[in-house]
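Reading a protein record of the kind used here takes little practice once its layout is understood. An example of such a record is reproduced below.
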Amino acid sequence: MSSRREFLQALAALGLAPGAPHRVAAAPRFARDPFRLGVASGYPSSGGAVLWTRLITDFERYDGGLDPAPVPVRWEVAADEAMRDIVSSGVESATPEWAHSVHAEVKGLAPGRWYWYRFAAGDAVSPTGRLLIAPRREAPVGRLRFAFASCQQYEQGYYGAWRHVVRDDPELVVFLGDYIYESSWGRRHVRKQNPGEPYTLEEYRMRYACYKSDPDLQAAHAACAWLATWDDHEVDNDYADDRGGDGMTGARFLARRAAAYRAYYEHMPLPARMRPDGPHMRIHTQFGWGALARFYLLDDRQYRAHQVCPRYSGGSNVIDLRECPALADPGRSLLGTVQEAWLDRAFGASRTGWNIIAQQTLMARFGVGSGSARRYWTDGWDGYPMARNRLLNSIHSKKLQNPVVIGGDVHHHAVADLKLDFDDPASPVVASEFCGTSITSQSRSQKQLDAARADNPHVKLADGRYRGYVRMDIEPGKLKADLRAMDTVAERDAACSTLAGFVVEDGHPGPRRS
């Protein structure tokens, strides 16, 4: 275990040491628009939500082009799009310590209705965003439309998928990780992210500013409230708890994780209760939408056991049980024992019609081969099979109503039956799974996916040919999922169509083609 002194030294090296007090910029004037990253909202309750923005004028500077002084930022919420009927307002201080970001937690709004909001700083006014306040906990709800997405490598494509999400007019967006990429990879790049791999707080801030400069992503944030969790690339590819995918450990990696977590908080519409404390940040939570649906947002990075039998000093591998018996160790967890226990209690307390388990990756078994020769990718649930068994058994034993697992990470659309025993055709289906393809990030070959699907008949679809997202409509009697597919991400204005549609009927787990 690293000493506190070593950790504090590493924090200082990465730009995270506490700073001195600053003067307040009472009435700033900006040479450029300071709202160049747009606006966002998140985590709507039955009476309020989080409103977000970040002041920045220069993407090429570590300080965002602003003086190192707090800036007062006024926010307003209106009952109309023209912002004439102001129903709530206030002032927040955007401080340099938190990259001049604002997280205003608005209260006192009416449940189940749309509102519009904006910010002002000095003589500058932000774009207008809108959000739908959640219905009361027990309120009957006839329908919820939401979109979920993941994996938006900036260099590999334009964010046209977000433009189509906005056209779908969802009431909520759920983002499942890899909002940024810390590394440059892939082929046929269509644009450039800022160079280098981030390690310091300033470098992570610049990477987020690059990604959030995209107008289609900004439009999706302004269109409705978001829920979000992270995956590995917000810190480092394949990282697990206190070890990077490249094998970096100890104080150096925890300091890097602290910088990444802080930058994540600064750039997302997260409530104050999620503000990071050094390398620790509680992001897993649950969220209700009246009596219709409840979401469980999970964190499968911060608390997980290290991947077994890594190819190098850390990260993932593709192995079978003969090479690596530790794969079947029942003590290993993807979520950590505390989060596992929290989720089990939450399942037992649920009284909603649909229960959406929002996590990062594909949960269904997808290894290639059979028996002890079946080969598994160790960074996903296949690398933690006993933890997956515990989660599915928890769903089954708690008689969780209409459980649906959503995920991302693997860069292909997948639809599956989740079973207590994937080797037994007669084993009960306990949940339905929809794993969405990436916004832009490139997939492995369709030939590889077809081979894996042939060995896993519980997987009903696995298609990596397209980038896109998933659109879901929930009603009391059914859930409908449309797998949305972009024609291309090499062009800004590409078309999008529905690759396939599936339905889950109330009380009958298992997706079927619609």
User: Anything to note?
Assistant: The chain has two domains: 25-131, 139-513. Residues 250-267 form the longest helix (18 residues). The two ends are 53 Å apart (CA to CA).
